[in-house]
Amino acid sequence: MIKFFRKIRQKLLTENKLSNYFIYAIGEVILVVIGILIALQLNNLNDIKKNKGDEKKYLARIQLDIKQDLAELEKLFQGDTIRLDAYTYLGRYLQSDSIATDPTLLLSKSDNAFGIHWFEGKNIVFDDMKSSGKTGLITSDSLRNSIQYYYRLFDEVIKEESVHNNSILKFSANIYPFFETGSGADLGMPERWKENSNEKSFYKYYNSLINLDEDQKKIISDNFGLTKANILLNHKVRLLLHKEGLKTIKAIDAYLKQEK
After folding, report:
1. Angle of helix 18-95 relative to helix 124-131, nearest 10 degrees?
2. Residue 171 in contact with residue 227, Cβ under 8 Å?
3. Each residue of 78-106: pLDDT tens digit?
4. Rounded to whole angstroms, what are the CA distances from 182 to 83, 113, 186, 233, 259?
5. How far is the first Cα of the chain from the last one, in angstroms, to the nearest whole number?
6. What is the mean pLDDT of residues 46-56?
7. How far apart are CA 67 and CA 55, in angstroms?
8. Neighbour-count burial of 29, counting CB atoms closer than 10 A to its CB (0-12 exposed, 13-18 middle, 19+ buried)
9. Which of 31-40, 78-87, 172-181 has the highest mean pLDDT?
10. How far is CA 218 from the centre of its chain?
11. Distance (Å, whole) CA 50 – CA 233
């Protein structure tokens, strides 16, 4: 093709047809410009297609992360309920002599009550998008805003939990002095690490619990109440994240179906 146009140009020059040559030259420039524009358009279409493909992959991975977050949150909800029930039982026991003091139940409730739980979550995919400047791949403003809001709540849950769990540890530390050192600690240990028999550990803990005086019971009961309040605060902020996660999953689903 290039040789063909070159021959025409040379012929026009040798025949001294300058006006025709200029017309030809302008036409040739126009053809080159059109070719460049077509190439740029094709390249742009390829970029759009690639970006759409990347967008769908990222959204599918984010959706999977959020689904796993929801599963983790639901397990934490179950744990919150078990712990709140346990603290409520123990608090009622401390405040009333009329509640039957079943040793096995007291130990079971104590085992359920103590300790802390926290949300870990999965935000690797979204963090990768942010750090690499790829959040713009999500072309829907409303969907992008929904995902960003979910992960702002995600970070907030972790911050709030840290504050509340530190408070729970402090309240737990306030009651440990009222129990015989190591009482009940061996009961949850594997056999190779137990210092005492189950029976001995059980009665050390149980005797510490039933021999509390009224002032000690009040201190422990007050700290139980404060602990419950912080467990409930954790529970509430997790509920907000769970609700937003469900909304975000539905929004991603709707968008991906629309883009098919």
Report:
1. 140
2. yes
3. 999 999 999 998 888 888 765 556 777 77
4. 21, 17, 7, 30, 61
5. 41
6. 71
7. 18
8. exposed
9. 78-87
10. 38
11. 44
Q: Quick count: other Cβ atoms within 10 Å of Cβ 67?
A: 14
Q: Structure pTM?
A: 0.75
24: amino acid identity, one letter:
Y
User: What H or E segment, with its residue span, contains residue 119?
Assistant: none
With H, G, I as helix, E, B as strand and everything else as coil, classify residue 152: helix
Q: Dump pLDDT digits (tens) for 60-79.
A: 999 999 999 999 999 999 99
Q: CB neighbours of 106 closer than 8 A, spacing ≥ 6?
A: 90, 93, 206, 209
Residue 90 contacts residue 248 (beta carbons within 8 Å): no
CA dist 21 and 13 (Å) reads 7
| 218 token code pair | 């009040």
Give the CA dihedral 167, 172, 177, 180, nearest 10 degrees: -160
User: Measured between alpha carbons, how far is 242 from 150 in angstroms, rounded to an integer?
Assistant: 9
Q: Token pair of 52, please? A: 């759409």
Residue written as tokens 């005492």? 196
Helix (H) or strand (E) holding 8: helix 2-14
DSSP H helical ranges for 96-183: 103-113, 124-131, 141-175
Helix (H) or strand (E) holding 23: helix 18-95
